[in-house]
C-alpha cells in the first residue's frame, strides 16, 4: 500500500474510532483519535503531487486542526485531574467556579481562533484549484450568506441580557471563524473538484463554526450573569448540580454527531482539494 493511501485509510479508521468513543462518552479517547485523524489527513495532503501551494496550504490547515484537538485533549486531562473541586467556604467555592467558567471560555475562544486559522490556511489553496463557476458558485454563495444569517440569529438568541458590545468583543474569534468559513464556502463553488467534495467539507465546517459561535455566546452570557448579577435582584446566584445519569451510563449521540461533522468536514475538504489538484494536472 502506498503512503498516501495508507494515510487515508488511517484517517478513516481513526475518525471512526473517535466518533465511536464520543458516542460512548469516552472524551479523552475521542480527542486522542481525533488528533490521529487530523494528523493523518495533514500527511495525506502533504504527500499529494502537484502544486506546492495546494499541498502546503491544505496540509497546514489540517495540521492546525490537529494542534487544536491536541490542546483540547490536554485541557480535558487537566480538568479531569482537578475534578475534585475546592473544599472550603462558599466564597472559595464561588471563586473556583468563576475561574472554571473563565478557563472554559478561554478554551472555546482559542478553539475558535484555531478554526479560523485552519480554514484561512485551507483558503490559500483555493485559487490554485480549477475554476468551475456557473450554477454551483451561485449556490455556494447563497449558502454562505445563509451561514452568516444563521450565525447572526444564534447570537441574537443568546440567553439573558448581556451587554451587546461586550458580547461581540468576546465573540470575536468565533465570528471571525464563521466569516472566514462562509467566505471559503462561497469560493469553493467557483473553484473546486467536480464532485463538490470541497464544498461539502466547507458546509460541514460552516456548521461547526456557527455552533462554536452559539456555544461561546451562551457560555459567555452565563459567565457574565454569574459574575454580574442584577443589582435589584432578590435571588442570589447558585450552582447548578446535575442529578441525572452519571457520565458514561448513556450514549452521547450529540457529541458523536459533533465529532463526525467536524472530522468529516476536514476530511472532505482535504480529499476534495487533492481531487481538484489531480483534475488540474489532468488538464495540463
Automatic annotation (TrEMBL):
GO molecular function ontology, one term from the record: aminopeptidase activity
Origin: domain of life: Bacteria
Residue stretches spanning the membrane: 31-49, 56-75, 110-131, 138-157, 169-190, 202-226, 253-273
Record's keyword terms, sorted: Aminopeptidase, Hydrolase, Membrane, Protease, Transmembrane, Transmembrane helix
Name used for this protein in its record: Aminopeptidase
